[in-house]
Each structure stands twice: as C-alpha cells, then as structure tokens.
Amino acid sequence: MDINKGDFVTRKSYNHDTVFKVINIKDGIYYLKGAEVRLYADSDFNDLVKCEKPKEEDFKEEDRNSKIKDKEKDDYFYLPGKILHIDGDNEYLEKCLKFYKYAGVYAIGKKIKEEDMYEQVVLLLKEYKPDILIITGHDAYYKKKGSITDNENYKNTKNFIKAVKAARNYEKSHEKLVIIAGACQSNYEELIKAGANYASSPKRVNIHALDPAIIAVTIALTERNKEINLKETLEKTKYGKDGMGGIMGNGLMYVGYPR
C-alpha cells in the first residue's frame, strides 16, 4: 500500500497509539505531525500503517460549558474573559478557535513560529489587552540528550520560556493576566517559574491540541469572585495532571446588572 503526503498513519512500534498526518517524505523518511496531539515524529515506511482521518471534534451541546447559556434568562449580564492564543501550528490553532467560538468566548488567534513569539508577544498584549494568554505550538523532550531539567534537551521549551518571561514582565500580576504555556513534553517546572499560571507537561507526556484551550475556556467562563477548582479543571484535559498543571486562582468573567 502506498503512503503519500497528506495521508494519515499510525506506527506499529508504538502500538498505533497516535494518529499522524504525513507532512513530508524525503530520502525514504516519512515526516509526521500528530493529528490531535502536538507532536512531530519521523519514521520509515515499514513501521507505518495507513488509517482513516480522525473524526473532527464534535462539540456536543451537553459537553459545552453552559454557564452563559443557562443564565441568559436571569437579570444579569455576563462578560467572559478575553483570550489571546499564540500558536506555532495553524491547524491546531484553527481547532482551538473553533472550540472558543462554540463555547461563546471571544478569542484572537495568531500563528507565530515558536522562536519568534517572544519578540511579538508584548506588542500583541498591548494591542488586544487579553485576560488570558496562551503560548503553545510544538515541543519535545529529547531523552537521549540527557537531563530532564536541562532546557537544551527540549525542542521549544526555551522559546516558550522567553515568551512567558516577556509577557510576565509586561504584566506582573498572575491575576490580571493568566498565562497558559507549553506543548507536548515541555518543561513544566521551568514554565511555571518563568511566570505561567498553567503549563505542560508535569510527566513529559504529549498533550491534546485542545488542552490549553479547555483550561482557558474554564477560566474565561468562571466568575471573578469564584476560585477555579484546579483538580477538576485539569481532569477536563486529555491526560489530566500528567499533561497539564498550574496554580490556584479565580475566574475572569465579569457579572453585571441589569441586563
């Protein structure tokens, strides 16, 4: 069976645990991108099995955070927190923007290469004045290179850290600007130290493309006088506390009266 650029495949050596899209083929090597997880990989032909394209996320009505919808009948009005989402991957960004629209949360999305994020993040913060900032894209921990604590052993953790530090230097308060940072296998501890409220990945596992967005929407749709249930929020993500972690804080939705 031929496998061509644009096809979807799984890997035999990893028990077909992840669906990838073939993004390039060169000198017999197949270059892959996770269809749902923020992961790049490469493989030879013999390890690949062609498969169907994963089904698009179907945001069912019962799965929606319905706080806004349920309250539209009362005497109050609601202003969810605003999201600025900076992503190194346009396909994943589009998935997240679709999710924000479904949830009824206003979000601005910008596709920027990971290495350029730190140069542009402050300009974007000044322009859009968001309540929540997401800094994500692709990352990986290269175990063969050495220590888990050395940022040189990660694909993009250093770039994410630089962007987080730039954003946190602009707005020092963790309450006024919530930062969600990292991607697959990122150095969680260093991203938190740099100033992120939430980050990946405590156990250096892959994360789903929507994981940062799920956390952001939860915060955006929780009232400012209510504390976010940290454990419950993390459990909404694909791999729970293994994939994402963070610090306690309140929601960012204003409630007003009368409608």
Task: Give the H and E element order.
Answer: EEEEEHEEHEHEHEHEHHEE
Q: What is the CATH T-level topology of the largest domain?
A: Rossmann fold
SS elements, strand count: 13
State the CATH architecture of the largest domain: 3-Layer(aba) Sandwich
Global outline: globular
Spatially, the strands of the biggest sheet line up as 8-7-9-10-11-12
- Report Rg: 19 Å
Summed up, the domain count is 2
Task: Outline the biggest β-sheet.
Answer: 6 strands, mixed
Explain what the structure shows.
The strands form 3 sheets. A 6-stranded mixed β-sheet has the order 8-7-9-10-11-12, sandwiched between helices. A 5-stranded antiparallel β-sheet has the order 4-3-2-1-5, with no helix packed on it. A two-stranded antiparallel ribbon has the order 6-13. The protein has 7 helices and 13 strands. The protein folds into 2 domains: 8-51; 61-256, Rossmann fold, CATH 3.40.50. It is an alpha/beta fold and 259 residues long. 26% of the residues lie in helices and 21% in strands. The radius of gyration is 19 Å and the shape is globular. Helix 3 (117-128) packs parallel to helix 4.
List keywords for this structure.
259 residues; alpha/beta; Rossmann fold; six-stranded mixed sheet; 7 helices; 13 strands
Summarize the structure.
The protein has 259 residues and is α/β, with parallel strands linked by helices.
Record the SSE blueprint.
Elements (H helix, E strand, L loop, with lengths): L7 E4 L8 E7 L2 E6 L5 E5 L3 E4 L15 H5 L5 E3 L3 E5 L2 H14 L3 E5 L5 H12 L3 E5 L20 H14 L7 E4 L6 H7 L3 E2 L11 H10 L9 H6 L9 E2 L7 E3 L3
Parallel strand pairs: 7-8, 7-9, 9-10, 10-11
Antiparallel strand pairs: 1-2, 1-5, 2-3, 3-4, 6-13, 11-12
